Amino acid sequence: MLYLFHYFLKKKHNQQRKNLGTNSMSIGLSSIIYMLSAVCLAKMASSDVCMKLGVRTCITVTFLTTALYCVLVPQCSSVYMIFVLQILPGMATGILFSYLTSEATKYVPQESKSTALGFFQVVYALGMTLFPMICGNIVSHFSMLYAYLFLAVICLIASSISFIYCKSH
């Protein structure tokens, strides 16, 4: 694992990002691609393919795909490649939010489902708040590369937990 971190560190990610020529137009386009992917691929969660694969496989593979995204983005040498890669977290948002919301309330009695959903949203909001703060600290003390690798590791952990949880239920 340390070898992997050392290898990525050599890539000088911060300078690479500046060299890609990103500007506000590129960032906006990247966000649009992400959001369109999330919206368009959310339907995929209820597709025949996902139904055949099952919840466990879909959640696990989607977290793995997100980890892959976190490893590939720092390696990009082209803004256009980042645009293409934006489809991966968009897909993850569309599929994971559908499945995780469903799983969060799956075994909750009907009269408590709204409370369970509220709790799920609180946990989700905490993640949306804390992870950018943690990543910001990682970037300021180390580099953007380490922040991406941190997120990749979190995705791998989430994938493992999801696989084990869904197997036991």
Automatic annotation (TrEMBL):
Pfam families: MFS_1 (PF07690). The keyword Transmembrane applies. It is found in: Cell membrane. Keywords: Membrane, Transmembrane, Transmembrane helix, Transport. GO terms for cellular component: plasma membrane. InterPro entries: MFS, MFS_dom, MFS_trans_sf. It comes from Faecalibacillus intestinalis. One of its GO terms (molecular function) is transmembrane transporter activity. This is MFS transporter.
